[in-house]
TrEMBL record:
The Histidine kinase domain, residue ranges: 257-458
Gene name tied to this protein: basS
Keyword match Zinc: no
Record-annotated membrane-spanning stretches: 175-194
Protein name: histidine kinase
Enzyme Commission code(s) on record: 2.7.13.3
Length: 466
């Protein structure tokens, strides 16, 4: 038996791995940015900035094109993040020039010098001096056709602070999509790992659904594939099933022993009553003794069916099994005045069943006919190719509202306690369930009609196909 895993440990490992992958992914992206060159980052930032600021061009009152400077951050912010165009350490400088190279507007510092190039609607990158000759700068030039001017934006290559700001701005922009994709991957991975980790628990749940009273003797929960956290619960459930099984066995043994003990005194009582002359009291007492004997027999059948007695389910010819029972019971039924018909007994229908249980079902149904239908009623037993056995009679039928399935025990069709114990139909249903079939009451215009559906032996059909 393999050792059960701990769900909390597995989830902790998953979270650790996902966090490590996230860090590795972020570090890889940052390394790739630096590997491609710090100036590439700066150039992309400068191109983006000149495109954004092109929208700030306007005509002044004199009809000249000027640059409407964006609002500057407060001077209270830390020095690396103070003004972009002014302050002690401005990041950018700009000039607005016409086609002749005349400067229409410019910044106080870092204003790039030189004549504009071609009228290109896309940013053009170059390097050159500033108007005041302070040194080479990186220049992004953009032609703005609405005004017929060039906006030239410059930034010093030696400005580490500007480079840092540009790097983080560009990295955050690019990492945003990467972070979103990684978040989706993390969620999918976490959900997948949790689902895989809970597969063992779902297997245990499926095992629990398969446990019924009929297989309680050998079915238990196998928790080897479940997390360690639920192992105590699985053990407790198995212990409870053992206790239920022990109680069911004790109840069955008690019923069987009690029924056997009652048989002898009932037989003696019947012999004594038969020795008396016939009179109403004696006849009523004989009926009560017969009813008690019948009840004891039915209790024995219930105990054997519920107690896990092993029945030899095998492939059998349904018509032959039914014929044997009808031949044994026909004389008694016909001599009492009932008519018996049979149909489909010669059909080659092979089912999975037990001849003892089939006989028990038919005898219970025939006993109900003798008790609850008047002599002269017709009884018909028929078999169809789909493995269904129909049992119908022309008697008064069951009362309105009587259940069509799940027949409760000790539920009678009338209030006459001498007419029956209310166990017959329950025995039939339990016996069919033990043969993996179903037993139900069908609607009928008159009388009662019962349907017994057996499981066909598919192995014979497969053999005939091959």
């Amino acid at each position: 038996m393999r050792r059960a895993y701990r769900l909390d440990v597995r989830l902790a490992v998953v979270v650790t791995l996902i966090s490590a992958l996230t860090l590795v992914g972020a570090g890889t992206i940052l390394s790739m940015e630096f590997t491609r060159g710090q100036f590439a980052i700066e150039e992309r930032g400068l191109s983006t900035q000149v495109e954004e600021w092109a929208g700030s061009l306007r005509y002044n009152h004199g009809g000249m094109v000027v640059f409407d400077r964006p609002a500057e951050p407060s001077s209270e912010i830390d020095p690396p993040y103070t003004g972009l165009l002014s302050g002690t350490r401005p990041v950018y400088g700009y000039t607005v020039t016409d086609a002749t190279g005349a400067v229409l507007d410019r910044s106080d510092v870092n204003a790039p010098a030189g004549r504009p190039g071609l009228a290109d609607p896309e940013p053009v990158l170059s390097s050159g001096p500033t108007l005041d000759g302070t040194g080479p700068v990186l220049i992004a030039e953009l032609y703005v056709p609405e005004f017929g001017v060039w906006l030239r934006l410059a930034r010093s290559r030696s400005d580490v602070t500007a480079l840092t700001n540009a790097f983080f701005a560009q990295s955050l922009e690019e990492l945003g999509w990467a972070a979103l994709a990684m978040l989706v991957v993390m969620v999918i991975t976490a959900v997948s790992i949790v689902r895989v980790s809970l597969l063992g628990l779902r297997r245990v749940a499926a095992q629990a659904e398969r446990i019924t009273f009929d297989n309680l003797g050998h079915e238990r929960l196998a928790g080897s594939s479940a997390p360690a956290e639920v192992q105590p619960l699985i053990a407790a459930v198995n212990h409870a099933l053992d206790s239920i099984r022990a109680g069911a066995v004790a109840q069955r043994d008690f019923s069987i022993h009690a029924a056997h003990e009652l048989r002898t005194p009932l037989a003696d009582l019947k012999l004594r009553l038969e020795g008396f002359a016939s009179n109403p009291d004696r006849d009523a007492a004989m009926q009560d003794v017969d009813a008690m004997a019948r009840l004891i027999e039915q209790l024995l059948h219930i105990a054997r069916l519920d107690g896990g007695t092993v029945f030899s389910l095998q492939s059998l010819h349904l018509g032959e099994a039914v014929s044997r029972v009808l031949q044994e019971e026909a004389s008694r039924l016909v001599s009492g005045g009932w008519l018996l018909e049979a149909g489909g007994l010669d059909l080659p229908v092979q089912v999975i069943g037990d001849s003892t249980l089939i006989a028990l079902i038919l005898r219970n149904l025939l006993e109900n006919v003798r008790k609850h239908t008047p002599p002269g009623s017709n009884v018909r037993v028929s078999i169809s190719n789909d493995g269904v056995l129909h049992f119908t009679d022309t008697g008064p039928g069951l009362p309105q509202g009587f259940p069509c399935s799940d027949f409760a025990r000790f539920v009678r069709g009338n209030d006459n306690t001498r007419s029956g114990s209310g166990l017959g139909l329950s025995i039939c249903e339990t016996a069919m369930r033990r043969m993996r079939g179903t037993f139900s009451l069908e609607p009928a215009a008159g009388g009662a009609s019962f349907r017994m559906a057996f499981s066909l032996d598919r192995s014979l059909e497969i053999g005939r196909i091959h």
